[in-house]
Amino acid sequence: MDAVLTALGTMAAVVAAGWVLGRRGTLGERGPAVLARVVFTVATPCLLLVTVAHADLHLLLSRAALVTAISTGLVAITAIAVLRWVWHRPVDDVVIGTLASSYVNAGNLGLPLAVYLLGSPVAIVPPLLFQLLVLAPVAFTILDRRSQPREGTATPVAGPPGSRASTTPRSVAAGAVVVRTLSNPIIVGALTGLVLATVPWHLPDVVFEPFRLLGAAAAPMALLTFGLSLAVPRSTGEQAPRSDLVLVVLLRSAVHPALAAAIGSALGLHGQSLLAVVAISALPTAQNVLVYALQYRRGQALARDAGLLTTVLAVPVLLVITAVLG
């Protein structure tokens, strides 16, 4: 467990540094937004490209991957059902709330946790790839679609001076959304890595080095962004709806690991394999969710507070899981 505690302590130190920078105003009012944009458009795509390109895609066909997909899907569906159909939250806020409920910190905490439990980081690959190749693209498709101007079933297009506005057919508007979604830096990085992982030949390591160097900045910059966001006074900053926050934290820290344990047991996982799947499902909300919220300017407070609370709860939850299943 020392590796997990070390990872948590390291993350806390970087977040604290971001908080100090925010309180001192070192980066100005736009600091969090600028850092989030760099992480979103440069660092994270590079990290995903290198990670997916070197991943063993056969792990996506394992029982552990199936447990990850089913349990994560159930958590996401529950979040959507409550946030949208019961509480009638705006679609953009539902997307961020769903990500905060189902998108775990697979990189910063997942890797040391997998090494501690199994002596290998292999266990973190299925949830990492599921998040990169399924959750993120679906979320960005919806967010990009929502950010497009809509008016009925057609998009107004300005014409020459004095002329009436024309409209773009739904099919053309849908095509524009597809193009924009496929131009999303996160999706471009993940898809490029997926292509490189499936081709029968391999690029030399020297080609990956610039991407690896830039990708290494993704985690610390996301943590700095998180710390900067925490420095905003509560009286002036956006407040997350308490009910939404409670729902997200419960789904992230309690419901998801419980589902993973039940589904994993039903599918025949046991011992360290079951322990690894359940423990990974109990990881806190990834800081990247806050980066996405800042990028799309929706649900920032929910992403920030969920990341903080689930990280604080991660230690006792992981200790309980290890004691019960270890």
Descriptive terms for the model:
single chain; 326 residues; mainly alpha; Na+/H+ antiporter like fold; two-stranded antiparallel sheet; globular
Structural write-up:
The chain has helices at 2-24, 31-53, 63-86, 91-102, 106-118, 125-146, 170-182, 185-198, 205-215, 218-230, 242-266, 271-281, 288-296, 300-325, and strands at residues 155-157, 166-168. It is mainly α and 326 residues long. Strands 1-2 form a two-stranded antiparallel sheet. A hairpin with an 8-residue loop joins strand 1 and strand 2. It starts with a helix and ends with a helix. The relative contact order is 0.19.
What does the secondary structure layout of this molecule look like, with pairings?
Layout: H1 2-24, H2 31-53, H3 63-86, H4 91-102, H5 106-118, H6 125-146, E1 155-157, E2 166-168, H7 170-182, H8 185-198, H9 205-215, H10 218-230, H11 242-266, H12 271-281, H13 288-296, H14 300-325
Antiparallel strand pairs: 1-2
Helix pairs in contact: 1-5, 1-10, 2-8, 2-9, 2-10, 2-13, 3-4, 3-11, 3-12, 4-6, 4-11, 4-14, 5-12, 6-7, 6-8, 11-12, 11-14, 12-14, 13-14
